[in-house]
Design brief:
By secondary structure, the protein is mostly helical. The chain has six helices and no strands. The two termini are 39 Å apart.
């Protein structure tokens, strides 16, 4: 459905520029936007490479294992049915742990929102780190709402199963 919406918007904008006689401005905007998109992509590649390298170093040095052990009491409460051996499993339908994992990934608490900060900096913002407290507030509130929702819906499903 989304490709049809985008296609319609592109066709409508081209037709509108033809009717108003602003094709040159449309062509200029298209080329400028393409150039800006390439510039943004290249600048974000540097940020991704930096943090990928830092995570690789953290993994090889054992920091990620230490963090995993530190967070194991919390993950034990979030994923109570998880197989402690770490072996993956197949299921025909999503269970509570799978749903919780999806919620945690989609809400993803951002400690340092590097992508947004690099976008702000490339757009000329002099203090891109000012976004950090707002990012924390938004991501933590989203995480809390997501975890509470999973807990509520899994309890509701458990009640349905026991009453049947």
């Amino acid at each position: 459905m989304l490709p049809y919406i985008w296609g319609f918007m592109i066709i409508a904008s081209v037709l509108y520029s033809m009717i108003n006689g602003t094709q040159e401005q449309l062509n200029s905007a298209i080329l400028t936007s393409a150039s800006d998109a390439i510039e943004l992509t290249v600048s974000m590649c540097g940020t991704v490479c930096l943090w990928s390298g830092i995570m690789e170093i953290a993994d090889k040095s054992g920091i990620t294992n230490a963090i995993s052990k530190l967070l194991s009491p919390l993950t034990g409460k979030l994923f109570p049915d998880l197989d402690k051996s770490g072996k993956s499993f197949r299921a025909d339908q999503a269970d509570r742990n799978m749903i919780m994992f999806v919620i945690l990934n989609t809400t993803s608490v951002q400690l340092i929102p590097t992508m947004i900060m690099s976008i702000l900096q490339s757009a000329g913002n002099n203090n891109p780190s000012q976004i950090i407290p707002f990012t924390w507030a938004a991501s933590v509130s989203g995480l809390i709402c997501g975890v509470i929702s999973v807990k509520i819906f899994t309890k509701r499903e458990a009640k349905k199963c026991t009453h049947q």
